[in-house]
């Protein structure tokens, strides 16, 4: 995490992240035009942000696009923010994300595991629900296959889609139609690409969520940092996080209300408020 703090300590690098927060997927030339410094200076700061994992790049033809990657910041959050403060911190984060408009989001994380084990954690329903809001992903892994995403034994349907590409243990591409509320259902279909690349004794996992409507509801992509943080924790330690990204639909009735664990967190906050 030292690289993350070092990268965030510089005001110019924080401004670059702000620029990508406002409009993701910018070229070096565009970012250079927004800062009072040379092209070399911008490149140097972007390189430090990439080394810290706060910026990821993707090629689009001849252009190299830069994307904000919020996962390292989420990992810092998960390490030091109390699980009881999480609902309040998440609410403030959601308020900020409501202002963001984008067509594509890219998230990257390094996990100490093998490609095969990471692949299994992504496609196996029993493992997926441990870090994916308690939701499982069930389908036949072949192009053209339909899938459903549900929780609590299939009684709560959260999404559906189609498998586009399957290349284990390297690449999985799927469409997704979110169904957990009327607001997200109206957004229609988007696309999610999982890419696994072995790096030494670890793997780099890149998740690209695109084909999003300009100004799409942030619920469609805002949960990725929590999901990936939970995935990393599960594979590296065998433990489960207590963030909403891990437990929201873990238990409780099928009516869609929060589960018992989440209710306990809320009760703790309420009691704390009464005692203040």
> Proportion of β residues?
25-35%
As residue ranges, the low-confidence spans are 253-276
Mean pLDDT comes to 84
Structural class: alpha+beta
Question: Mind telling me the CATH class of the largest domain?
Answer: Alpha Beta
Question: What does it look like?
Answer:
It contains 12 helices and 9 strands. By secondary structure, the protein is an alpha+beta fold. The chain has 2 domains: 1-68, Orthogonal Bundle (Arc Repressor Mutant, subunit A), CATH 1.10.10.10; 70-261, START domain (Alpha-D-Glucose-1,6-Bisphosphate, Chain A, domain 4), CATH 3.30.530.20. A 7-stranded antiparallel beta sheet has the order 3-9-8-7-6-5-4. A two-stranded antiparallel sheet has the order 1-2. Helix 1 runs antiparallel to helix 4 and helix 5 packs across helix 10 (224-237). It is globular and about 55 Å long. The model is unreliable at 253-276 (pLDDT under 50).
How is the topology of this model organized?
Layout lengths: L1 H7 L2 H12 L5 H5 L6 H13 L3 E6 L2 E6 L2 H10 L5 H12 L7 E7 L3 H9 L1 H4 L6 E4 L7 E6 L4 E12 L3 E8 L3 H4 L3 E11 L2 E9 L13 H14 L6 H4 L12 H16 L1
Antiparallel strand pairs: 1-2, 3-9, 4-5, 5-6, 6-7, 7-8, 8-9
Quick recap of the structure?
With 276 residues, this protein is an alpha+beta fold. The protein has helices at residues 2-8, 11-22, 28-32, 39-51, 71-80, 86-97, 115-123, 125-128, 182-185, 224-237, 244-247, 260-275, and strands at residues 55-60, 63-68, 105-111, 135-138, 146-151, 156-167, 171-178, 189-199, 202-210. It folds into two domains: 1-68, Arc Repressor Mutant, subunit A (Orthogonal Bundle), CATH 1.10.10; 70-261, Alpha-D-Glucose-1,6-Bisphosphate, Chain A, domain 4.
